[in-house]
Amino acid sequence: DSNVSVTTPGGTRRQNVAIDWLYFRVPVGDATVTTGRQVINWGHRMKAWDARADRLRADYRLTDELALFAYYQKDREDWGAEGKDEDQYRISLGVNYGTPDLRVVAQVRHTNDERDSVANPTTQAEFRQGESGQEVYGFATFKVADLTLSSEFDFRFGDVHKVYNDDLNDGRSDYGTPYAIFVGADYALGDTTLTGGIAYADNAWSSATSGHFDQITMFYNTSGGHGLGHSRIGTWSNDGELAIGVGASHKLTPELTLGGKLAYLDGDNVGVNKGWDMIVADASMAYKVNASTTYHIDAIYAKPDFDDPNEKEDAYWGLSHRFEIKF
Predict the structure, then answer these.
(1) pTM of the predicted model, to two decimals?
(2) Distance (Å, rounded) from C-alpha 164 to C-alpha 128?
(3) Which residues partner with 251 through β-bridges?
(4) Among 61, 71, 81, 209, which is disulfide-ready with 67 (CB 3.0 to 4.6 Å)?
């Protein structure tokens, strides 16, 4: 794991170059074993995309369409007082089914934090320390002629995933179990593709801070190359969040593609007068310079409406361009 970064005058570290994966893959009979720091791309980008994890993974193919997989993931390696292990790890078991028209992938994952729990927790991190929990999540893609349907879900259980809220604004601890669901559709009409989708997250699933809903609008993609994602709304703890979007892209020439999206966002946040809604418009252009290089121009405009009368409702807009080079 190697990072080259600089520190801005405001003290924020900006990553310029990252070399953050190295793994070995070995076939063993009908199975494949992969170990090392791996790139994680999952589903339709809701759960994780371009993430990194230290894993020991095994894949076993039962038939041409069906395979099983399992992995051990180390999130933290640490020693506490008197040499006590304070690691955090995850163990997962999953299934992968795929045909030319249908793909379904799902897994069950257990997370364990080996630190001692906090007797009187007051922060989100302290509530989760020393706890364990489970996740059930998966995605599916189904193709019918020119129509492609996609879906993804994520449900979390157990104390390590519970979210501390103060829904009643009374200073007491209220708990919620995070979950999120996404359903989308793409329809191809020659050189034009129509898109649409709806996503919902509940109990502080943190959609606005991790780019989980970027299938709906680039507003949510805070880690994307366009740099136009906005995380201001994510600074609150979200009770519930809804995103609905439609869009289209058109290939004008083999090299030039134009696209746009229109989305409606709605959130209910913890505390008094913390609800909000927003209209967002995206626009994009991609020009393929050659087989490995693409030039992008992206733009965004978002107009918020907050329940809090003291919250500024200035429009958010941005414009960016970049070269994408694939090796």
Answers:
(1) 0.80
(2) 9
(3) 257
(4) 61
